[in-house]
Amino acid sequence: MMPFLLAEFTNLEEILPLYVYCVGSHEQKHLERPEGYPAHQLFLSRSGQGIFRIQGHADILLTPGSALLLPANQPHAYFPYESTENWDLGFVAFDGKAAKSLLEQMNKLVLTVLQVPNFELLWSQLESLWQLISLNGEQAYWEASKRIYGMTISLLEGQASDKKILKGVTSSGSPQPALQAAVKLIHDHYNERLLLTNVARAAGYSPQHFHRLFVSSYGMTPQQYILQLRMRRATQLLQENPSITVESVAEKLGMETSYFIRMFKRTYGLTPKKYKDQS
């Protein structure tokens, strides 16, 4: 879970042609927006299913691995497909003078369900963007602008590739198969003491080359990526097991308790215990 984060970039909307308005992810509940939202939004459905009800359009069902691009000020509502279902929905809202022309360029992708072949890349970019703003605040505004543009291009690239528009083109913007295998290894063993030199060698890379490729593809270091996986899993454990202790969560993540508490607070702004009490 990435709690709702408002990007408070004071007066920068006059400077940046494209800027982040807010970003986050959570188990989505029923939400009504009869006046729409003041910024354009990209939604990513990670697990569960949900319905978008948009004025003047048929209902849109988002399933795992799908996305929706929603223009600003478009009246809408959205909610889980079943009232008891957990719908993990990520979102980023953006605006700026370049946003309108960007959406016009992507007009075929607007207000329609998008099956996203490079979903994991987009989700990692979303997590990276949230982490950037969460840790750096207004100091992140230039980099955040670059990354939201990168996300929209990744979305467009995935859709173009899915429709075979880019025949015969090898893109350096999407993770290479060996790098994807390394990421899968990280996902499978993130709760163990992972030596990144071993992960790099398993993928056939030198540690230095692996680090460069990873940062280029995912916008963060392998260590930051592993930490995000651990923090996300921590929130799931705390939500799913009300009686679980902080020490048990740290153990399941392969982390020393005091370090886990420190990293959790740095990521989410409160201790694991306070987070559990509020869940």
From TrEMBL:
InterPro entries: AraC-bd, Homeodomain-like_sf, HTH-like, HTH_AraC, HTH_AraC-typ_CS
GO molecular function, one term: sequence-specific DNA binding
Domain HTH araC/xylS-type: 180-278
Alphabetic keyword roster: DNA-binding, Transcription, Transcription regulation
Top-level taxon of origin: Bacteria
Family annotation (Pfam families): AraC_binding, HTH_18
Signal peptide: none
Keyword presence, Plastid: no
Protein name: AraC family transcriptional regulator
Source species of the chain: Paenibacillus woosongensis
